Amino acid sequence: MNFYAGLPSQELWRSFRTDDRGSATVEMVLLTPLLVVMLVFIVFCGRLADCTSRLNDVAHQAARAASLARTVTSARDDASATAQEALAQAGIICQTLAVAVTAAGLQPGSPVSVDVACTVGLSDLALLGVPGSKTLRASFSSPVDTFRSAAGNGRGA
């Protein structure tokens, strides 16, 4: 049975303006895409923050590995290998990876700094095929152990 069948045309238009049946449905239809976009943006920001946090841990591990090396060359190699392994364990896929080691001769007590730059694809990060990439950077410094023996003297580790 049609509610509007017996109404004159002016009353029919007036009833359309004052009748609010279905308005909640229309509001939900209009708001749902906006809510989905907001949810996706929140997930994207959360994953980006998580990736940055994991990259800071990678820089920490790489700096510690470099501080245990005996030569600057082996410090660079150890830091790079440790960073690649830690990134794989963390599940971060870098399009490009740069590991820079700054060491002042690896003397006991001197700091060894490692800077890690990883370019990640945003499509992997957001899980939605977002185009583009972002370079995330992290750095950490670790001191060379003050009680370790000098290289080549046959004592200590």
Description:
It is built from four helices and three strands, in the order αααββαβ. It has 157 residues and is α+β, with helices and mostly antiparallel strands. The C terminus is likely disordered. The chain has a three-stranded antiparallel beta sheet with strand order 1-2-3. The longest helix is centred in the first third of the chain and has 45 residues. Strand 1 and strand 2 form a beta hairpin.
Précis, in short:
The chain has 157 residues and is α+β, with helices and mostly antiparallel strands.
Low-confidence stretches: 152-157
Determine Rg (CA atoms, Å): 30 Å
Order of helices and strands: HHHEEHE
How many H/I helices?
Answer: 4
Main sheet makeup:
3 strands, antiparallel
**Overall pLDDT metric:** 82
Taking the alpha carbons of the first and last residues, their distance comes to 92 Å
Structural class: alpha+beta
Please report the total strand number as a whole number.
3
Spatial arrangement of strands, main beta sheet: 1-2-3
- As a percent range, the share of helical residues equals 40-55%
Amount of beta strand = 15-25%
| Tertiary shape | rod-shaped
Protein name: TadE/TadG family type IV pilus assembly protein
Pfam family, one: TadE
Keywords: Membrane, Transmembrane, Transmembrane helix
Organism: Amycolatopsis pigmentata
